[in-house]
Design a protein that fits this description.
single chain; 224 residues; two-stranded antiparallel sheet; 10 helices; 9 strands
């Protein structure tokens, strides 16, 4: 399997654009957990851009955090197994971000990657195995021909439609209604200001259901 090298300085997907609070909200990861995953940067599971940054997380970091949360919360994969797999994948495939750049699978204990349709156990440094696909999580990541993520559809519940999308080339990577530049934050701010969902939907010429999905994307701030 060949991983396409990306010139990260020119690729918007690798540029730091998100503060910790936003990645925590959209990847559904507790802030304290996210800090632990990025602790010491170079040795963390999620490696951030170097140097002091107000918004140190890139779009790729967002995807890593989202996949890692799926492995931990939904599949209960032990953190020790994930760290071993990440270290091995970084060395074998020459990527600093295997959780985002590689399609991973799990059996609930180890991590796997497929080579020529054969599952290889990354947690055990290349042994064979029979994993279960992380389908629920990976379906919400859209990739380019090089298999690098280009869009992410944040979810607010298990069967959430792909109505809200995050694309680093649109609205500075913030969530927008798919196919538009109308951000979920804009809708949230108007709703918080007292406008009705129906009026907001009419103003943007959007289905009422899309406005509801945009608000769900900002649910943490609504709850607060």
């Amino acid at each position: 399997m060949t991983i396409m090298k990306t010139t990260t300085e020119q690729d918007l997907r690798y540029r730091p654009i998100y503060p910790l609070a936003e990645v925590s909200r959209y990847a559904r990861v507790h802030p304290a957990t996210l800090r632990m995953w990025t602790h010491n940067r170079g040795s963390g599971v999620v490696i951030l851009a170097t140097g002091p940054q107000v918004a140190p997380f890139s779009f790729i970091n967002l995807i890593e955090s989202y996949v890692l949360e799926g492995l931990r919360r939904t599949h209960r994969v032990p953190m020790q197994r994930i760290r071993k797999a990440v270290e091995w994948l970084q060395q074998k495939y020459g990527t600093a971000h295997p959780l985002a750049e590689l399609n991973l699978e799990t059996d609930g204990y180890d991590l796997f990657i497929r080579e020529l349709d054969v599952p290889v156990n990354a947690s055990r440094r290349g042994q064979g195995g029979f994993p279960e696909v992380l389908a629920q999580y990976l379906r919400r990541i859209e990739r380019d021909k090089g298999r690098i993520p280009v869009r992410f559809y944040p979810y607010t519940y298990v069967q959430a439609p792909k109505a809200i999308v995050m694309d680093p080339a649109v609205a500075y990577g913030r969530p927008v209604v798919a196919g538009t530049r109308v951000s979920s934050q804009m809708i949230f701010d108007r709703y918080s200001g007292g406008e009705s969902l129906r009026d907001i939907a009419l103003d943007y010429d959007l289905d009422f259901q899309l406005i509801e999905e945009a608000l769900r994307c900002e649910i943490d701030r609504i709850a607060a």
